[in-house]
Amino acid sequence: MTxxxxxxxxxxxxxxxxxxxxxxxxxxxxxHLQQLTDVEKVNFLNHLAEVYSVxxxxxxxxxxxxxxxHAQTANYTQGQAxxxxxxGEYYLNNGEYDKANVxxxxxxxxxxxxxxxxxxxxxxxxxxxxxxxxxxxxKALHYLHKTLPLHKKQYNLRAIANxxxxxxxIYANQGFPEKALEYALQxxxxxxxxxxxxxxxxxxxxxxxxxxxxxNLRKALHNYLESLxxxxxxxxxxxIAFALDNIGKVYLRQxxxxxxxxxxxxxxxISEQLNSAKQTATTYIHMGNTYQGLHDKAKxxxxxxxxxxxxxxxxxxxxxxPILNQIGKFNALNRDFKTALSFHYQALSKVKNSQSRxxxxxxxxxxxxxxxxxxxxxxxxxxxxLYSQLQDSIQNDASLRKIAELQTRFELEENQQHIxxxxxxxNLEIERQKTVQNYLIAIILAGTFLIITLIAFYISHLRANRxxxxxxxxxxxxxxxxxxxxxxxxxxxxxxxxxxxELRKTNETKDKFFSIIAHDLRAPLATxxxxxxxxxxxxxxxxxxxxxxxxxxxxxxxxxxxxxxNNLLQWSRSxxxxxxxxxxxxxxxxxxxxxxxxxxEETANKSISIVSKINPEAIAFADANMLxxxxxxxxxxxxKFTPKGGNIxxxxxxxxxxxxxxxxxxxxxxxxxxxxxxxxxDLQIGFTTIGTANEKGxxxxxxxxxEFVEKNGGKxxxxxxxxxxxxxxITIPKNTIRLSAN
Length: 742
Fold this sequence. Notes:
It is a single chain. 75% of the residues lie in helices and 6% in strands. The protein is built from 28 helices and seven strands. It is α+β, with helices and mostly antiparallel strands. Strand 6 and strand 7 form a beta hairpin. Strands 2-4-5-7-6 form a five-stranded mixed sheet, covered by helices on one side. Strands 1-3 form a two-stranded antiparallel ribbon.
């Protein structure tokens, strides 16, 4: 039996056992092992360790250790090295970096002893990954750049992609995003060439992490969701846990707390089943952040301390930094500034000599935020300047341009490959159709010849009539074809006319979009810049009250700017059709309560009473994000245009049609004239005004509200008189299925 045949048998047995061993137990495995030679046993067990590493890590560790035992007994050095690397991989994924390094160093030593390039390259790569996780990026890059030529020499594409992916993470943490994106895209290209779903899912997670750190949540979520889809198809439990946690992380940043909790809980269940302490700790942190957003302080603190305990036991200093900062922020929000600073400075001590500019930046920002809450202007400025310097160096214009160029080039290449693939399929289909046509023509010609011969032989006098009939049918057929061509041309012409009208409308909308940016964006930016300049130039001549005033004014300007950008983003997405429509059952009372809590600080500052009279059984059937945007926008406007001491009431009502229900938002604000009422929903006019506390609007919010309400099949109405307040009413489809109690 040749080596190739033996290898194929081992591989097939390994695949069979990996699929059936759980059901058949250890007896099946032992039976297979007894049929193999010592070397084949080691190779078989090492392969099982690799297969189980993404499904049942503890089982992978068991197979790796068993492979090592058999390899040592058989004095099979190559098998020993692979076993050391497989055992080290388990400890690496679990966050036990020192234990992992010991295993990888053992494998490297064997590789040098037997002069086996593949083992040397693999071990060097894994040691580089260890140093990356330990935060020693210089050593990590040294090992990884050293191993790349070895992988290329052996044309080991999988190893090249893994190495490039790790280098991408290192450059990202060092604050070089353009290099990070370049290596991440190179890794993804190779993995797509190999058509390895699990490796592609890893790259998609990496790209998601990159875009998440760049705050491009749309692209981040797209990559995370695609990674989850692939991991579920392949049954990759570690990949599923990673993707679920990452998706929840995006929803958390969007303040979609309940949705993020669903993903975190599923991710946590899988991580605990896999006994992955490191991934479990990561999800603990995110769940703590979620419960803090839901104002459940007890649960938030419990998850933070649980995550800190895991990394403390693993002695992972750098991975403790985000947790220490988060606990510090938690205590600062609860006004326990002494404890907050204690945790922040612990984080600073662990990251100060680190090569991670991202962790340093986040720690400086956390300290600056805490000092700002303490109204300690000097300390705030000290750490805010350190944060700004790092942030500016990471996100400079040249870097952003380079990122955009890389991203565009990659997308163009992807599209080109897709087009070439489509063209190839079309050409194949054309060739197939030509072949079929040729066969049909040959059959038709043969049949026609036979028929004509018979007719000529038996009924010669009918030949002329038949030929004339064929000619007439041909003319009729051609006339029909001409009519179809004319109809197609007419249809094409109509479409061109429609496209021209649509293009004209798009250009008008684009002109209005740039007009809004030029007019409305310039003012808040100028105000924000002025306040920041005043704050950055502050010296002893400024009183604490003046600094507080400037700080509060800066925050107000930033909020106005943020509201403007959010509305511009929503408007742009709606025009491009990138907002997905996903109707679902919504308990109105919960949605209104969430909105009221979001404006609680603003209503308190203006002494405004806000009352909700929503029927607890009122259940709508609409897109949750769109309806949430509409309610938040109208309530925010009510707060904005209601003077101090005013009242706002939110109530539900039954629509005239039993299939609809409605929501009214009534305020005692300044009101709107009849002329201005006509302008509220017209983007071309771009009507906006100033609130009772000088709050600024964009003119886009109500335009989007109308669009979102109508997209859900409802209507929006407004009634108002100057000095007598305003009443907004919306109707939305009613859910016909009664929800359960929970």
